Amino acid sequence: MQIIEKILEKADPAPKSEQTDTRLNLFGFSRKELETLLGTYQIPSFRAKQIWHWLYTKGATDFAQMTTLAKPMQQRLSEEFVIRYPRISTAQESVDGTQKWLLGFDDRAKAEAECVFIPAEERGTLCISSQVGCTLNCKFCHTGTQAWVKNLDVADIVGQVVHAKTALNDWGKLEEGRALSNIVLMGMGEPLYNYDNVAKALHILMDGDGLSISKRKITLSTAGVVPLIERVGAELGVNLAISLHAVRDEVRDVIVPLNRKYPLKELLEACRNYPGATNMRRITYEYVMLAGVNDSDADAHELVRLLRDMPAKVNLIPFNPWPGAPYECSSNKRIQIFADIVHDGGLPCPVRTPRGRDILAACGQLKSDSVRKRASERSADADA
Ligand code: SAH
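^ thats the input. predicted complex w/ S-adenosyl-L-homocysteine below
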């Protein structure tokens, strides 16, 4: 019973006066929780499995579509539960086919985050957000200029994926035929500062009877929250990307302020011990090219020295500008020379092609104008 109480306690924190719909949103529950929860309504576990199937392989948005359930059960379920997709605030498409959506997750406050779909020849990648705003304040990142708002909850994270599946008409497809094949946690926010919700959401995305997205097709990107890196490998087993961006603490302290808490040496030590990293499954080190800041030949040689004894690959990201940004992107020639040095040092080093720059959908350009709720509103939520 404890688990149910916990579930019910967490559900719908709306202040009583503002409550319009008190039904529980099914996207917030792990498979086990869903089984337990439905069990309290005398619904057997095979029914929970069927419902899971409807939600995550067929994209059902209504219990009436669940034709394996008898009408009275559909009716009963719809009285207690809801299948709530995120609200689409805006949808944009780039000239290169990249699509960006601003999604709303909370009807009571303005909490919105962006997610981006990037189609390529051999894959389609959905870049999802883990927080609204970010507390890290990396100097080159647009999200960092936005005030911190909130951690996305499990349903909000899963919601981005089910929304994209619907928008891309991607339900019911076999793995080979899917538009959406890969997920990257490289949108707004630091996923390891919202670990519990991110982990639970990833388990839902990876479930073999549901969305069935393989851990090999999911990449979690972190600015380097060292104490949680091992758990990502041991508990989730997804690919790891590290936002490195500098090879000396003096520089990294400035552009990725989290470095003052977890300096390079500790970060690289955690990566060296990352469970599951092999030459076949290398850790990706993201390196944004900022003119005159981190892009010298000496920086490239140091990068090789730091990473050469580990299963690593480097991803060079041309800096994506945003209004008022304090940096400029390195020249193409500089990026090429840098890439050649790293490559000659024995590390794969592709240069990432910017996608969706015209709609501010490229790495580090995401931002929403959500505002944090006032303290009085937050405590009303907590009391409800
Ligand atoms: N907080 C996580 C995930 C979000 S950022 C992290 O730091 O990894 C996803 C990637 O985009 C990170 O590597 C980030 O450093 C990079 N990025 C941020 N702003 C950028 C910009 N303006 N141009 C290019 N890449 C940027």
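Residues 103-374 form a domain with the TIM Barrel fold (CATH 3.20.20.70).
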